[in-house]
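Homework help board

Subject: predicted structure for assignment chain

Our instructor gave us this sequence and asked us to write out the predicted structure in token form, then describe one feature. I got the tokens but I'm not sure how to describe them. Can anyone check?
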Amino acid sequence: MNTSQVPESIRYCIIGAGIHGLSTAWHLARELKARGTGDGSDILVLEKSHAGAGPSGIACGVVRNNYFQPAMRELMAHSVQVWETDPEAFEYHPVGYLQISYEEMRSDVATIAAQQEAIGYESVFVEGEQETHNYMKGIFDDWRCTGVTSVLHEKKGGYAHNMATVNALLAKAEAEGVRVVTDILVTELAVNGGAVTHVVTNRGDVITVDQVVAAAGPWVPKLWEMLDLPENTDILVDGEVITQPTWKFWALQEGTLDVDPGYLVNNEGTMPPVVHVDADAPLYDEEGNFLVDGKWGVYYKPDFNFGGVQGGYMPYPVERPWRDVAIDPYGPASPDFVVGEDFREVWASALSHCQERFEGKASLMSRAPSGGIGAFTPDSFPVFDTFCENVYVVADSNHGFKMIGVGALVAKELVGETQSLLEPFRYSRYATGRLHPLSNSPYPWS
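My token output:
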């Protein structure tokens, strides 16, 4: 990784060396070379810490197409294609994905299944409480989950090793001549005449730029503030305008059960699909104490990177990270801020609710860092758009890691080729009321 002095000027300055920043840098270098209009030496990536230091480096790594929103579904189908280009380097495991759901979600998931079929994304949809139970027993003979009435089994997707993916993207970008400078903080985006002309860093660098890409994950809102963009957003809903904060923050609750990853093999003795369960049955701990009444959701998978059975639970809202002394968004990640005893107890109990093999295993919950903070847009879906004439904002709204293909699309837009897959994610959708449909999932991003 190049940590030398930054150049005085650069055509493309990308802020953030996570999944989106590095994917954009890699694909942009290839686009420039293919067109004969430049190469990787025209691209600079600035990273406040090290590549993957933010959410990309501690992401659960799940890759799925299970979205109620058609635009998200098509975007994820594209991203899966990118994952499949180099599964070895990305340490991508295409084991598939299971969405098991309660009755209120059944019609939503049926729509997803039908539209996956329409775009050629292979999946199997099973309806009915007993039919769902039987299907899952065919995968795990100890399946015992109640409160679910359908299962959508995506045959593609799966999960990837977070830092292996980051390092692979870093290597691909640097192989194209991209300069990645670490341990450097952007402190100002200097706007002159309506566009950003200079990027200023904490080292005193003043870099003349033609184009900026803000791809800093949950720190994008800080760059948004530097550009003096609106703190609140007007949204047209059913003919009326409502105003909401442009950014909201959720703590992502993830962790690992410290067992051998092989503990979660399927009936055939092989690695199973990623399991996601949204249920509405009451949840109890191992002593029979009541934990959750109403809808809850968990996801889990065997993972040799995390060294156990890893996954997560529903998020909860937090204040703006850089206004909270417990989280320094310009310093080291502080994932333990968001993972507490309540999460560990509920998650372990949910695993036991789903499969008998997890009964009595709550004490094995690991305390290794996981989770993190997600910055969400007003409707909890991404914004991919240009602001201040030359700042391309990649605001993934916590859909990030799985969307490795976004960088390829952004790269094409940076060289002037508008991408239809990104059109539904423009900021203007709020003012015009072209919002994404909402599902009945307990998760804000489904």
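Reply (TA_rk): Your tokens look well-formed. For the description, you could write something like this. Confidence is low (pLDDT under 50) at residues 322-339. That's the kind of observation they're looking for.
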